[in-house]
Amino acid sequence: MQNSTEMHQNETRGAHPYAPARAPRANVVAARGCQECRAWGTVVTIEGRLELCPACQVPG
User: Fold this and answer.
1) Helix ranges, 3-59 (H)
2) Which residues are registered as beta bridge partners of 52?
């Protein structure tokens, strides 16, 4: 049986292999009061991706 130190050494480390290189940067001023993202400026898609909120983070 492995002790807890050995178990932690065998775990994989780092970001998920499908994670984006960088998280999108939201404009928090534009997100203020948005009901769709609850003022975070980002939403998580059904696929699990973090994307800018389509309601308040309009490019421009």
Assistant:
1) 4-10, 28-31
2) 42
